[in-house]
Amino acid sequence: MSEKGICYLVGAGPGDLGLVTLRAKECISLADVLVYDALSSPELLRWTKKDCEKIYVGKRAKDHALPQDQINALIVARTKEGKNVVRLKGGDPMIFGRGGEEAAELADAGVAFEIVPGISSSIAGPCYAGIPVTHRDHCSQLTIFTGHEDPTKGESSINYEQLAKAPGTKVFLMGVARLREICDQFIKHGADAATPIALTRWATTGSQRTIEGTLATIADVAEKQNFTSPAVAVIGDVVRERAKINWFEKRPLFGKRIVVTRTREQAGTLSKELANLGADVVELPVIRIEDPVDKIGFAESVATAHEYDWLVFTSPNGVSRFFDAFFSIHDDARCLGKPKIAAIGPGTVQKINEYHIGVDLIPQKFVAEGLVDAFKKEDIENLTILIIKPEVSRDVVYHGLCGMGAIVDECIAYRTVAETEDPTGAVAMLKEEGADVITFTSASTVEHFFNLGIPWPEKCVAGSIGPVTSEALLEAGHKASFEARDHNIPGLIKAIRKHLRV
Question: What's the whole-model pTM score?
Answer without folding.
Answer: 0.79
